[in-house]
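User: Quick sanity check before I run a bigger batch. Here is a single chain. Can you write out its predicted 3D structure?
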Amino acid sequence: MNPMSHAKTILSPKSYLAAFVFIVLMVAAAYGLNDREIILPEMAAMAVGLWVYRDKQWLNQPDKIFILPSLTAVIGFCINLMPISYLFKLVLVLCAMLLVMRMFNYILPPALATGFLPIVTQAYEISFLISIFATSFILMLGVVLFKLNQGVERKGNFDRRKIGVYASITLIGFALAAIFKIEAMALIPPITVVVYESLNMMMYSLKMCLKQVAMLTLSISMAVLM
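Assistant: Done. Predicted structure follows.
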């Protein structure tokens, strides 16, 4: 992800420690309960984006830190239970999420991923939703209690033009996956967030593109090797 797009960089050791402890506890809970659906990559990314880098675009409406990921996760979870094709599920989730965000006049990029996540990971256990609710609430609580949004103007950020471009890119990805019969590659949750975040950047250079490719490739390579 790219939480640096509108961020005031505050690389406090305490912030790093808080995010690290949050992620470790999430993994420990998954291990202790023997439930892989409790491990939520997007919540780990949100912990870093909210608590460490403090992205203004993610902080300007703290209540949405809990509300939007929870709503999109419920949407994705329910659609995943439908007896329809994988790609059709993704299309339905995309449309439903954008409709909900239009109603709130607010986009929280990680919430796009939490909507797709239950379909991509084939999550059928209610523990998935419980973990989304719990972790997003903790993240919101951290922002409110420590006033991480202090001085950040509360405003909507739903940009129809950017959303139109994002939806078009995503749907083209679905179409290409169907044409080449690689449905499993139709959508990768972290990548879909990077796409939206990139559209929000005031300037998007080749250097930034290469950095994103390098970081994403490095992180997935480490995961595969481990």
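DSSP finds ten helices and no strands in the chain.

User: Great, the batch can go ahead then.
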